[in-house]
UniProtKB/TrEMBL annotation:
Stored InterPro entries: BT1, FBT, MFS_trans_sf
Pfam family, one: BT1
Name used for this protein in its record: Folate-biopterin transporter 4
Record membrane topology: Multi-pass membrane protein
Taxonomy of the source species: Eukaryota, Viridiplantae, Streptophyta, Embryophyta, Tracheophyta
Amino acid sequence: MMGWLKQLRTTFGASFLWLVCLIYFTQGFRSFVWTAVSYQLKDNLKLSPSASQFITSIAFFPWSIKPLYGILSDCFPIRGRKRVPYLTLATLLSLLPWLILGLSAFLRNTRIELMILLTVQNLGSAMADVVIDAMIAEAVRFERASFAGDLQSISWLAMAFGGICGSLLGGYALVNLQIDRIFLLFSVLPALQLFSCGLVEEGSVQGKALPDGSASNGSEMTIGSIEEEDKFSSEKSKISTLRRKKSQKNSKRAPTPINKLQAPDKTGSSLSQWYQSLKMATYTLFRAFRQPAILRPMAWFFLAHVTVPNLSTVMFYYQTEFLKLDASFLGTARVLGWLGLMIGTLTYNRYLKKMRLRYILMFTQVGVALLTVLDMVLVSRANVYFGISDKFTVLFGSALSDGINQFKFMPFLILSGQLCPPGIEGTLFALFMSINNLGTTVGSFVGAGLASVLNISSGSFDNLFLGIGIQVLCTFIPVAFLFLIPKEATGISA
């Protein structure tokens, strides 16, 4: 293990490897602070479950437009650099909101201001997620392509370790610290990330063609419980766009001297080049996405989210207010969720990857429905009748739900990789992930609307059983649209 890390450090540099691990650890550790956000909305702002879920859904919307960050950094270098300046900006956007919320009681306890600051924070986190994957892809391409899997593995391990630590410490911190202290304590990580950005060197793109690739990640955050931001879903991919290949060919035919690039008309020509790059990237992206072979499967994954109301925030209120489960226990449940996700990934890779995706997705939807019935058992108190404690039921459901949901997310990753045409892999994959995240966000809005219609509020859970029953029935709707998935597609990459 140490020899492997030493080899990576020698190949890519200690500062770059440290930055990669730090950013992904921070992404996983976000569960530490977002647990506090959930309690801030519930206990201090006294919001109803539907209002709390609405604010959270708005706050996570920046994860649904990740391709924009990749295109922005690809096409508009800042002082000749495409990655580090944007990573620095993203880190500032993710750092400042936590400092402000930790220092200002007024902004922390005002609904609109809190929602705006949380949205800005997610904007910074999502942008950093995209930029660091682009840096990983470029580092692998320019240094050693054989290390692509190793860098991917270390980023997953860092995120998983951060998620486990954040889930364990988040509940403990809520019991022993004030929420403002938790916000300030978490800000140490993005502050350290900001300092680390200055340690990584990046060459200028001025005077040469744009590099031949970039990448965009798609996290999260599977973020489907209290901390939907846990980005169980990070997948690294590289992009080498057609416009940049053309730019390289033109550069080889007529190399431009450095002093000519510094001529007075540099600004105008650069703006024109950036505009043409942006235009070509956008056109190529949407032209590829309009193909039925790509559009139909992505439509299914989107429908699989939007047709099923997300009642995770309502269940959080029920578990904390009615069942009186404390924050430290819920943190432990999230750790089991992480472990369930890892086991689900291993199970899929070992036993299910040769199965047709239609069958996998159908059985997954059935499994999700059965686990949702477990929530009905919890709400109806049937578990108590049979002598099963609430804590065991919650722990069992948390571990299984993340594992089974991974059976749906893994085919999404595999199919996305198969569908990406050469030349725009990274940006198109980021678009796929954004569609997945947008579906999750819309599903949360639907869940908030359902809770509002059924008058489910803090301290009033009489209609929660009915709401979960509706959720169970809706889980079968995506099964009717499985014809959108390619018939012969399996979990083995083409």
